[in-house]
Amino acid sequence: MKLSRPDKFNDPWDCRVHYHVPTDATGRERVIEHWKQLHRKKFSRISEAKRALLAHEFKTNPSKVGEGLANAEKLLYETLCNRYRIYCLSEKPDVPLMWGHYAGSHTGICLEFDARCAPFAAAEKVKYVSAYPAFDVLKGSYESLFTKSADWSYEAEWRLITEERAVAASPRTIKTDNDFLTILPSVLKSVTIGCLTDKSTRQQIENLIKRTAPSVLVRQAAIAPDKYALIITPPFLTPDHAAIAKG
To answer: What mean pLDDT is reported for the chain?
Structure first.
């Protein structure tokens, strides 16, 4: 199963961290002290006197704090994109926009996974917000991986987050190797074929599933005759137990 880098998504704000810039002296001092600690860990050979001089430059020029936070945002985004891989899922298998965006304009497929089984049991629900959040630089920003604009709320998204093994920072996370994660065949419950998939491709999909995964249910999406909606047959009876892949 292939996962994606955050910088490959179609939302330019996706996974980007925006830091709160303090406007008071106490808040700036707090940020500067945090930076001093990080600097001390990364550049331990630099003298404390030189470190104090660098901190003094930030204290005497408040605009430098904002510039420093902006640079930190860029560096952190690069780190997130290199370290994390994301598999996007949805609770809703019948949203026309989702099929249009992520399934070849209704010619692709939608995969249903059992959300009770690993690794999908570790997926987390995306939080949709109306205002672009400003994070506290001292409190971390992992939440940015699960926060999106309310404009995307129709996707009802969940995310499975992994770390690339070669650059992983934690021994407890799920690991991908060159963007790929191996899953058990049993977690795939059904495959839904798009309403505009041609007959030949549909037959190929059905034959492939019959030959390699006969227990997997094949569903078919169709255009509703009297409204803007998709009809999926057989219908999903227990959507709360399923995680639907977006693409």
So the answer is: 93
